Amino acid sequence: MSTIAITRPVSPSIVRCELTHLGRVPIDLARAEAQHAAYEEALRALGCRLVRVPAAPDLPDAVFVEDTAIVLDEVAILTRPGAPSRRPETEAVAEGLARYRPLRRVVDPGTLEGGDVLRAGRTLFVGQSSRTNAAGLAQLREHVAGFGYQVVPVEVRECLHLKSAVTLVAPGTFLVQPAWVARDWFAGATFIEVDPREPFAANALLVGDGVIYPDVFPLTRLRLEAKGLRVVTVDVSELQKAEGAVTCCSVILEQA
Known about the structure:
The protein is of the alpha/beta class and 256 residues long. Helices cover 21% and strands 26% of the residues. The chain is built from six helices and 15 strands. The mean pLDDT is 97.
């Protein structure tokens, strides 16, 4: 098996990105591009083969490719983003994914974004956020019904996506911001809480035996390392201004 990471370049129009919980501030495009390149290098260092979707200069949020697809072992589900400006992002991603998985789609009136779908084994936790609605959840459940996945809706508060509040950092272990999501949704799991002084620190990307993690959260990083996790830090500070994070910038899949 090989690990593939699908990525997409930073759009020069990222300054017009969708924002929900953050105020708009200037984004340094050259620095964002350099940070994205370093992020891709971190993926390579953890054993990924990169597959780049063509750039989309007129789609401000295109770099956040995670939101466009949910890729499982058996199938890939193309999403229908909750932000209408993001819906054109899915077609180029579909073309890239078609060589690896059969494709299914979320359609109107459903909305679903990949940042709201957290896979842990055969369970898909789905955040009930402003970007994902009940119809999108129902369509996802229908698409995966034949493959043995359990779909669990999860309430989130005060954040953009479920993965803003909780991510998987090792089998059965979640990094969590308890102010944004309750632990009760994840029965039987082990938890690492973010340091209270770093409220945005719950987004981490597990790849193989490593965790890609923003370098601006050193206190929470210490908590991860204290549990024996291998942490690979990256600077994504410009992308964070666009409400991005380390899971957002790739779609990870295994291929024989």
